[in-house]
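User: Structure tokens for this complex, please. No commentary.
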Amino acid sequence: MSSAAALSWFARHELRLAWREWLAMMTGGRRRKTRAAVIGLTVFAATMHLPAWAVIGRYAGLETPLDKTSLIVITATVFLAWALMLSQAIESVTRVFYARADLDLIMSSPAKLTNVFSVRIAAIALVVTSMALVLSSPFVDVLVIGGGARWLAAFGVVVAVGLIAAAFAIAITILLFRLIGPARTRLIAQILAAIIGAGFVIALQVAAILSYGKLSRFAVLTSDAAAAYAPGPDSPVWWPARAMLGDGTALLFLLSIGLVLLGAVMTMVSPRFADTALSASAHAASGSRGSDARTFRGGSRQQALRRKEFLLLGRDPWLMSQTLMQMLYLVPPALFLWRSFSDSSTAIVLITPVIVMAAGQLAGGLAWLTISGEDAADLVATAPLPPASVIRAKIEVVLIVIAMVFAPLIAGLAFVAPLQAVVTAAGIVIAAGSATAIQLWFRVQAKRSQFRRRQTSSRIATFAEAFSSIGWAGTSGLALSIPLAAVISGLMTLGIMAATWKLSPQRD
Amino acid sequence: MVAAGKAKLGDMFMNGGTSALQLTGLTKRFDRLAVDALDLTVHAGEFYALVGPNGAGKTTTLRMVAGLLKPDAGAIGIFGIDALRDPVAAKQVLAWVSDEPMIYDKLTPIEYLEFVAGLWGIEPRRSQPAAQELLASLGLEPHRNERCEGFSKGMRQKVALAGALVHDPKLIILDEPLTGLDAVSARHVKGLLNERVRGGCTIIMTTHILEVAERMADRIGVIAAGRLVAEGTLAELRQQNGCHDMSLEDLFIALVDAKREAA
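Assistant:
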């Protein structure tokens, strides 16, 4: 086989693996569900056009030359997309380093490793870019329908931004390996991914709170101050915005940057990719050391279970990346709350739904880990305590963690607005309880390492968890402003919970 | 169907004072009949090996005994306790080790043993020395504070076995316990199990390694198509088949073939 043929064969192999990984994520690993997943995804993509229309439909008619505020908003949106793609790409790269089990096979083959790993890097970039294209297509479609074919250039911008994000992600991860070693890279890379993913939006919100006393990030982007500080309309800073609007030169420039960066990363990283991946997998196999001295603790059987759950939650490598972003989104409400000590703004009501929503989402993740993600299910099932006691201990762990995370916020809120603190606390308890109940109704035994794929095990559970969190968040917010609407919203959310329970698998 | 089995249970417990395990009419059906009205008695203090071809119903039987599967019919008595009526009391005296060790990657062996002891409600003053002794005897002492995520299958199997022994069970059920162990580790484990039996513990073990059954077991049960086709000491099995110089492997093949032909 010629070198080119071998490369194209390996590229096909990589793409097939990536496709199957993606399909498994969509179908929960059940082959029969492929058609259902395709139909579901199509329906979801079609449905997404409605919110996309509501959010950006009004911008479809934008014509060049644009005013500074429009340029700022579009550029910030492109930057936000880049940050999210970078976050996703860092996670993908980390996963490839720590999880791919074919390194021995590849390295013992007579293939040229530099070429093979160049293909692998390109595959990472392709996956990240494809995902971004899928997610952005409803928005671009809306712009094309409303503003004409020139908006098709936005797809080119997404590709360019995806390539740049993939190149940065690989460079950052390799740099972390060199600086802090494989032992710490996995954790730090996940934290970094979460911070990058949420950082830009949070930074805008923080600036809006500090400058305008508002939670909306658009407050900063559309402000006169931002327009005054922004460079002139001919600045290269606006090239992404101009490329979006169909400027061919700007688009070509962006795509060139993406390709050059990815090519440079491939050239620099490919020769060392194998060493890096091997040291990562060697670290994963060697494990970490615990403390040397250990005295057994007494207590009830339920206490033993709770201790084990706390220990495992604290050591879960994926929990950090999956929940840190949710936790970071609590920073602006906390800051808003802190600012409200001196300024009794009615806008403080806005933080209740944010907090309740975060509590529901976090509880869902924790409940999956403790209830479904039981690695030694046989051991627990053969232990001399009733199944109900086991489940109760696990639920207690979820609620204790939720209480530990949200108690400081509620305590702070109680000083500023005691009634709101009570409503928020009730919302947290109900949202966390609902998310836990959904996880309980739809529990399936799985390995904790499958946490990233928990959403795919049951689509109904995933959507029910999201809708219940949104429902209880809305209900809590409305309870403070329009109580009658809160009753209606609460009843609707209860309806969602009842329907979910009805659809859940029969339990013994 | 289970109720019918339970009707027999009173008689069963009144008759057998020293049986560690008594199965009566135990039945389980999946797509096909996996366990077919199985009757089996294992005496207290006995090392019992359950052998049979793949899919014979060995693991299904033992999973029902351990409370991991509900039988469709029949009764399970563990030291006189009706395991279907009072599973918690039955589980208190029982330990289960499967061929695929289920341990926590993120716990160290000593943390795992502390958790298991806590789950069985064993006082730390008893469980801690027992755990340390087990780790030492299984050669896990140098790894006691390393997380299990980096362990080989053999080491994981030893951690799972230590977990089964740390709460000092009266009945240990082992499903292919020697899978993945090297020769030295396998000898350690066999020694440890024999020691437990000498101390009064009852062991029921499934194995594909017939030499192990031949050497370690007091009695051997041969199961095929969900039914017990032969049972006894090796000498008794030979006598039943009229071949006094047959190895267990030859006996096993003859018995399984005979069952297949009969079916």
